[in-house]
Amino acid sequence: MTSETPIPTGRELEILEILWGHGEATVREVYEVMREENPIVQNTVQAFLRTMTEKKLVVYRKEGRSFVYRALVQQKKTKKRLLKHMLDRVFEGSLESLVTSALQLKKPRREEIRELRRMLQEMEAKAAKEKS
Prior knowledge:
Layout: H1 10-22, E1 25-26, H2 27-35, H3 42-54, E2 58-63, E3 66-71, H4 75-90, H5 95-105, H6 110-131
Antiparallel strand pairs: 1-3, 2-3
Helix pairs in contact: 2-3
């Protein structure tokens, strides 16, 4: 995903999640997964995929009469870019505000707290090493 690639909308991100999970999928397959959680029609999914192709978020190949889509953008990079966008726009660049809001929204599990502690200790050690 380059800086020119648009930030995916909520629905586009749902479709990307399906494609990242399946590798590739037809319009019908994406529709089948999406309709389990959201009322949506197949033509709407097809329209989203067409728009996402124009935005260079997905690519397709023809297989018989079907179009088989796959994500053109990488999951990790896309999520990192979305988070940076949210950090800058919603939290005015404040990491503390973002983390505080996240922790108020959802109580972390014990394993998550251990992992957060480990990451903080690692970051502190790295910062101390850079300082010396």
